[in-house]
Structures are given as structure tokens and as C-alpha cells.
Amino acid sequence: MKKLLFVGAEVMPFAATGGLGDVLGSLPQALAASGEVDVRVVLPLYAAVSEVWRKQMKQEAVFYVHLAWREQYCGVYSLKKDGVTYYFIDNEYYFKRPNLYGFFDDGERYAYFCMAVMELMHRLDYYPDILHAHDWQAALSVVYLNCIYRSRPSYGNIKTAFTIHNIEYQGCYDFAILGDVFSLGENEHSLMENDGCINLMKAAVECADRVTTVSPRYAEEIKTAEYAHGLDSCLNRNAHKLSGILNGIDYKYYDPKNDKAIAAGFGVRSLGGKIKNKLALQKETGLPEREDVPMLSVISRLASHKGLDLIAECIYDVVMNNDVQLVILGKGEGKYEQFFLNLQACFPNKVRALITYDRDLSKRIYAATDIFIMPSKSEPCGLSQMIASRYGAIPVVRETGGLYDSIKPFWMDGKTMNGNGFTFANYSSYELGDRIGAALELYRDKELCKKLVVKIMKTDFSWKVSAESYLALYNEMA
Ligand code: GLC
Known about the structure:
binds alpha-D-glucopyranose; nine-stranded mixed sheet; 40% helix
């Protein structure tokens, strides 16, 4: 059986802040379920990993990791869950902190983590056939394998894949710390360099046997200057090994029929449950309890690349001119938080701005939503449009990255229904407003709307298809 090791900075349900955590929490299980691969996942043992999990862990090894002049303690713990073995790298100095990231020494923390991953192989006498690293925090595992460990016994045949979940975050540092922090020398200077800086993501792209990203469209987009954040020439040079595989979502965790987090379960044959969820959310948030009013929602990090400028430009008119309710869930840039709070103050009977992040609350909102708004400027894959679909909310999205690949425009060809949402191409608030308007018009046609909702809920966004694409990739590599 092929041995596969995933390396990443966040994994659900242990420690996660975003989509990367979702994917690393569900793809390995889907791969393991195929019975074709032995899947293990390695991540840092953050303070956030709860006691519930810690109690189930077994200590596998204790050793020291050398990083330039440092000698750092490393404990390796393991835990088996759903057919996958998880390894946790323990070092309290680096990982016992209040958040996963955002510290002055993140470069050093993840350099240590990646070096520990290399050492772990030798200490546990476990050498994967394929090392699959995700995003910049794991990039150095690919680099250390190629530049430092390759010539050692048993490391010679390990193949590498590197996945870009978001090209905006590359891990860029000054060359002054190449030796002192990253433990690399002048021989690696050109490998590590992009635009005059150390660029960890770039180096992993150069070293890896295969590079993937999380949707076919994004794989094309990141070869252009508009999307690549400075890595376009690197990706064009490596285009022969680049491909895009659309993410899936965890169909067990996101299951409206059996979801304990929502007010009432529902499915395509019991859509009445969806109305109960709407009424429950209205009650919870103090909005007028009315089942006939269309419920719009935005569930997003409040960051500009999520397209919030477009929402800010058109949403006032939408709320002003229509009998609707709008719920926003998320936090982020202050100006957007303030904008939505102001909107709520203008329309206290129509708008709720929930400036927080709460997974269960997000599920209650998905379940209550009729029209889900996601007009991202760029979106490597996006999971929210898939979750919304599964919970029967009609997505209104901009045609970019994974949104383009997963949501196709709704239109009627005589009696035949095409598409699974409302989409627009240009980064324009006029187009967004227009598509929200079209979705509201459809909402008024009860029968047609129900037909579309059923179609959307039946669209397959599970890991099934994508896991097969990954297995095919691993087979090609081996
Ligand atoms: C990142 C991307 C998002 C993607 C997720 C999982 O968070 O921004 O689009 O869905 O990674 O791959």
C-alpha cells in the first residue's frame, strides 16, 4: 500500500482557522476510505488542541531538532481517527501560544516544524512514498527533503507534492535569516529567491515533483500577474507540473439531515425543515419572525479579497428596495465590520451584523438562508458556496477560481433547468446587485425556486470525485 504523509499547519477538528483546516481534516479520511493508501497527517501540537484529543494521544518519540545553531526539543505524539494516523509535533516554546499564527517568529516556528517532520521519519522509521505539503507553512518540508535529507539512507525515493491553497500567503523573509533561521546556505540562494526576498512557497514549487492548487480555474489564474502575487513567472516555468483539483466538503459534518447544530433537520424531500431553521434564526437574532421573507446571508472573513467592496456598494439599495432580511457573519477589517454595523443600525428590522466567528452559528445561518452572497475578488476554491448549496441556499457568486468551477449560471432552456446558482463575471457592484435581484425574482416563483433548491442540494460536492483525482495524481507520481 502506498504511504502518504500530509504536512500542514491546520487540521480539523484539532486546530483550524479556515478552509485549509477543513480540507486537511477531510481529504485524508476520504483518501483512507479508498483503501488504496496508508494516510498520515502531521501538524503542530498547538495550545488550541483540546484535552479531549490529548488524552487519546500516544507518545511516539522524543528527540532534538537542529535548526541552524539551535537545538530544540521535539516530542511526537500520535492519534488514530477515521482510518488516518495523525502526528503532533510538540514544542511548547513554539506552539503553546494563544493563536495558531501571526507571531514575529512564524518563519522560525514553521522551519522548526518542517525540520521536525524530516527527523520524525528517521526516528519512527517511517518513510512515506509521497510527502504532500500544504501552503507556505509546510513548504520547507519539501525544500529540506531536497536540499538536506535527500542523500541520507531511505529519503532518496520520497516523491513530493505541494498544494497552494491561497497564493496570497507565500512566506516572504529577508535574506539576512537564510542561514540563521532557515538553516540553508548560499547554494540555496537562487532556489529560495523571488523579487529579492526569501520566498518559501516559491522554493517549494521549484522543488516539488507535482504542484496542485484547489480548483482547475485557479490553476490557470495563478499563471497570470493579476492573481499570482508575484509568482507568475515561477508558476509559468513550472506549468508542466501544475494542476488544479477542486476541493470537496465533509458530507458527514455538513449534513442538514443529521446536523445537531441546526434547529431542524431537512433534506430535498423535507424542505419544510428549512423554514423552521429560518424562523429559529429570526428568533435567535431578534429579526421579525416571518417565513415568507427571503433571507440573504454573507458568511465570510471580512477581508477585501472576499469582494466586500462590491457588497458594500450595492447592499444598501438591495435592503432598502426589497422586502428581505440580511444576516452577516464574520470578522476582519474594521471598516467592513463598521459598515455592516451601520447597516444594521439603518435597518434594525432587516439586518443583523454578527461580528464574530462561530462554526455552529454559521451552520444555523446556512440552514436558514435562501440566497447566499459570495462575490470574491479571488477565490482559490471556496468552501462556503458548497456548504450553502448543501443546506439549500442559492449561491450568488463571482466567476473566479473555484467559484467558477463549482457554480454555473441558472437559466431555463424551455423546461430544462441549467446551472446551480447566479453568477457574474466582472468585479462590479452593478453586476452583483443585478444577480441578487435575479435571485430575488426567482424566489418569488415558489415552484421554480423549489426546483432549483432541490437541484442545488443534490449537486455533488463530496470528496468522492476529488479524492479520486488525488489518487490518480499519486499513482502517476509513484
Ligand atoms: C484557502 C482558500 C479557499 C480554499 C481553502 C481550502 O482558504 O482561500 O478558497 O477553499 O484554502 O483549499
